[in-house]
Amino acid sequence: MISFEKANNIISEEFNKLQLGTEENNLIGALNRVLAETILSDIDLPPFDNSSMDGYAIKFNPNIKEWKVNGEITAGNYRNYNVDESSTVRIMTGGKLPKNCDTVIPIEDVDVTNEFVQLKETAAFSCGINIRKKGEDLLKGEIAVEKDTILKPHNIAVAASCGKSKLKTFKKLKIGILTTGDELIDINIKPDSDKIRASNLYSLYTAVKETNMKPISFGIIKDNKSVLFQKVKNILNKKLDILLTSGGVSVGKYDYLKEVFEELGVTVKFWRVLIKPGKPILFGIYNNNDHQTLIFGLPGNPVSSLVAYIVFVRRHILELYGNQELTIMHAVLKDNISKQDKKRHFIRGVMKKVSQNEHEVTLSGHQSSGNLVQMGKANCLILIEEEKFNPKIGDTVECIMI
């Protein structure tokens, strides 16, 4: 059994060996993907001097405060009016500035009489105000969006301004999900006797989808070693990037998965970690010619399975794509916690904001690794380090947001 940090270091080393392919996406389809190229601007942005508000374009002279209106320019409808120091052109936001103009006076700062405008006595007045200069945001050839950026709407907008209808992004990881156990039935069946619905299949599938990866469900399989062997063999031949299994990796009589993995040539990097919940996690590598699949044998208990995914799998997916990290916040503990071992604990909690700079966290309820209902009420995992014992009300703790 190894420590949490050592386990994560081993996983990190193997994740760094993953070769991320690239693909082209249309601009809208690239949302939330990770950019695999650097986007350069093909034009100056803005491409011309323009007005930042509705007003009057003038050639500045501090001694002139009344102008004759020669015409009007709206956005996208430019006319090159002849403007001197005693004349002006009404201009709308985004309108291209006439050649001789260097200042825009806001509409609210002038009084209009017939064809003349006069500066109000209370109005501010200086050369160059309310002009967006050509290339002010970005010059042609400059970097508009950096490689490895997670593309959000504002990044998409910049790419669109640079004329990019397609973007090269890193491919999504293909992540298989298999749940094991004689007790499991699908969710559309009402359980009786000793059966339970296979919630892990759905929690892991949606957890993978939440990271914007590509989940592939391989369903439910019974605790039959020969059937399990053939099923896993077929899955490993599909050249997944990651395989997640739940159940079958503890020390029970019918926990066959570890043995099956080893018989199929999986190199087990570690089995069992000093954490609670999630201790019986397995991590291994399967090499199929030139392709490597990372194997995570997650515990079968619903809470353990999801917690292990969050702290061992999601963490490294986020780091692989764009150097994201788990969202960790600090909060004041409002419940005493009993912890007397040297494991790292992940306690389900409910955090809330109590002031501008302070959060507090309470336990979400009973902490059984099979209590999925209390997990459903939580919005964070309270992290209690190995060397910390029996944290008390008022202690500040780290919380991983979920």
Characterization of the model:
This protein is about 20% helix and about 30% strand. The model has no long low-confidence stretch (mean pLDDT about 95). It has four domains: about 5-20 and about 170-320, 3-Layer(aba) Sandwich (Molybdenum Cofactor Biosythetic Enzyme, Chain A), CATH 3.40.980; about 20-45 and about 135-170, Molybdopterin biosynthesis moea protein, domain 2 (Alpha-Beta Complex), CATH 3.90.105.10; about 50-130, Molybdopterin biosynthesis moea protein, domain 3 (Molybdopterin biosynthesis moeA protein, domain 3, Beta Complex); about 330-400, Beta-clip, CATH 2.40.340.10. The strands form seven sheets. The chain has a six-stranded mixed beta sheet, with no helix packed on it. It has a six-stranded mixed beta sheet with strand order 16-13-17-21-20-18, with helices on both faces. The chain has seven helices and 26 strands. It is α/β, with parallel strands linked by helices and about 400 residues long.
Give the key terms.
402 residues, Molybdenum Cofactor Biosythetic Enzyme, Chain A, Molybdopterin biosynthesis moea protein, domain 2, Molybdopterin biosynthesis moeA protein, domain 3, 4 domains, six-stranded mixed beta sheet
At CATH's second level, what is the architecture of the largest domain? 3-Layer(aba) Sandwich
- Rg measurement, Å: 31 Å
Helix-residue proportion: 10-25%
- By DSSP, the count of extended strands is 26
Count of the domains: 4
CA(first)-CA(last) distance:
26 Å
Strand order of the largest sheet: 7-4-6-5-9-8
Which stretches of 5+ consecutive residues score pLDDT under 50?
none
What is the CATH T-level topology of the largest domain?
Answer: Molybdenum Cofactor Biosythetic Enzyme, Chain A
Mean pLDDT: 94
CATH hierarchy class name of the largest domain:
Alpha Beta
What would you give as the CATH superfamily of the largest domain? Answer: MoaB/Mog-like domain
